[in-house]
Amino acid sequence: MVFFIANKSRITCIYINAKVYGDAKVYGHAMVYGNAKVYGDAWIYEKARVYGNAQVYGNAWIHEKARVYDNAQVYGNAMVYDNAKVYGNAKVYDNAMVHDNAMVYGNAIVYDNAWIYEKARVYDNAIVYEKARVYGNVEVYGNVEVFSA
Prior knowledge:
Layout: E1 2-7, E2 10-15, E3 19-20, E4 25-26, E5 31-32, E6 37-38, E7 43-44, E8 49-50, E9 55-56, E10 61-62, E11 67-68, E12 73-74, E13 79-80, E14 85-86, E15 91-92, E16 97-98, E17 103-104, E18 109-110, E19 115-117, E20 121-122, E21 127-129, E22 133-135, E23 139-140, E24 145-147
């Protein structure tokens, strides 16, 4: 079973196994499906997708065609947007941002005030934190840590 929520020509889908609760909002052609959970004050909108066993919670925002899936978690005040993807067992939290076609996946962790953007890739067991900026055609992977001094 699928729930469709229509609001001024903006259809949103929440499939029956997915859970959206608390003050969370899903709108603007966004979809939450599989066993995904969206809760707290999280917002999913503008054609974003959250699926698989992914969890989005706290004050996190997922929007502008971004994808969060598999077992990924996005929480705190984190933002994922503009065609970015977070998947696998990756975690993005605190005030971190992933955007502009960037990807965070595998067991990677991005937190604090770190930004991943402009097609950058962070994966494997990489950790990016503090005010680090990873951008462009850069790949951060393996057991490496990137942070600002």
